[in-house]
Amino acid sequence: GITYTRWGRTKCPGRNTELVYSGYVGGSYWTHKGAAVDYLCMPKNPDWNYEYTNGTSGYKGYVFGAEYETYNYIGIGKSDHNYDVPCAVCRTVGSTSVLAVPGKTKCEKSWTKQYSGYLMSGYHGHEAASQYICLDKDAETLPGTSANKDGKLLYLVEARCGSLKCPPYYEGRELACVVCTK
Which GO CC annotations does the UniProt entry carry (predicted)? Predict the structure, then answer.
């Protein structure tokens, strides 16, 4: 089988899919210039190496929690703004490939849809780089986390015309995505 991350959910879809672990979305802080790009699915029950130091010091990388920056936009998150984001790492039995397709809600023939949703990333004007992820259209929040603490942030991604052909894309329209296996 293969594994993939279901961003914004705590469970895995489908009958041939099993939960490896669930956790919290994390990553670098949105203003850090030396930030790592990736979004991470941090397990709920971390292990620690044999030697570690409590407290912070300057010469290290950092991982912060992630929160939705959805304001009152259409689709997901009309009431999820500033809530922290869950995730699930899923394993699909019998599949050998996984593909997240931007701009689609359905998989190509002979591929199996795991979930679809909205393409998300960091904000284009922030210091830290980010990556694109496919957030489940039925995204959940972590209960009791509506405080605005920032960290790694998730924004909807919209199409911009120019070198991206319009039509078929439309200026400012939020992009869909789908995660497919085969």
Answer: extracellular space
CA angle, 86 as apex, 13 and 51 as ends, to 5°? Answer: 120
> pLDDT by residue (tens digit) across 123-152?
998 888 899 999 999 999 888 888 889 888
Q: Give the C-alpha distances (Å, rounded to integers) separating 180 from 56, 75, 93, 141.
A: 40, 21, 13, 23
What are the φ/ψ torsions at residue 146 (nearest 5 degrees)?
Answer: -80, 0
Query: What was the pLDDT predicted at 73?
Result: 67
| Cβ atoms of 135 and 7 closer than 8 Å | yes
Evaluate whether 3 touches 19 at the Cβ level (below 8 Å).
Answer: no
Whole-number Å distance between alpha carbons of 63 and 5: 18
Please provide the distance, in angstroms rounded to a whole number, between the alpha carbons at the two ends of the chain: 10
